[in-house]
Amino acid sequence: MSEWNNPSTSNNLENPNLSTFNTEGENSQNLPADNPPADRSYSIIDPIWETLDPNPDPQILYNQFNKIIFGGTLPTVDVKWSNRMTRSTGVCYHSLNKSGDCIGCRIRLSKKILELRRRKDMVESLLHEMIHVLLCSTNNMDPGDDHGPNFRLTMEVFNNSFGTNITISHTFYEEVEAVKRHWWECDGPCQNVVKRATNRAPSSKERWFREHEQTCGGSFIKTSEPEGPARKRRRT
């Protein structure tokens, strides 16, 4: 196993007082003024945040986590919601120069999946991507494996330090299925149903389609779609 060490990050992980949020400042925008909590510092995954700040801005969270967890050592990264991401909860795009050194990252989180989950799941998804940023910016990415030994080691340290449940892949299968609101059903013998999150009908551009034409020969008829804006966009 390859090893690496980031002093600022390591020191913060070993100090539990630096893994908490204070309800003052940016975190207090949804705090009830007439009933403030007695203890104003909480773990980053404390259930109270589900009430105090249920829908945080991912960019603000990135900046805060960079400061309190990573000692401000991570680079400036653009963090945004993605309305098109419907299979994974997040992704970290990184750019490398000709020497293989990291020259930039950006993070996208799935709006459609994570809005159906708890705030804690969003936080853990963001931290997952921030580990990728850490490994990229310190040139410690695992060769040929995005979730190799260095990633797993860092993930384990985070989980042990904060009580988080950062994982290699998510298990939000129900949420992934829930966003598949465009349905097509074959009118041929197979009667297969294709479900997708986007309005993209089955076509010959897909590898399996030719085999379907040869073995079934039926046509896919749309049987379900979201109401409102999605339908209007399709007609324009």
Automatic annotation (TrEMBL):
Residues 1-37 are annotated as: Disordered. GO terms for biological process: DNA damage response. Residues 1-32 have a biased composition (Polar residues). Residues 59-223 form the SprT-like domain. Coiled coil: none annotated. Keywords: Nucleus. It comes from the Eukaryota. It holds the Pfam family SPRTN_ZBD. GO terms for molecular function: metalloendopeptidase activity; polyubiquitin modification-dependent protein binding; single-stranded DNA binding. GO terms for cellular component: nucleus. This is SprT-like domain-containing protein Spartan.
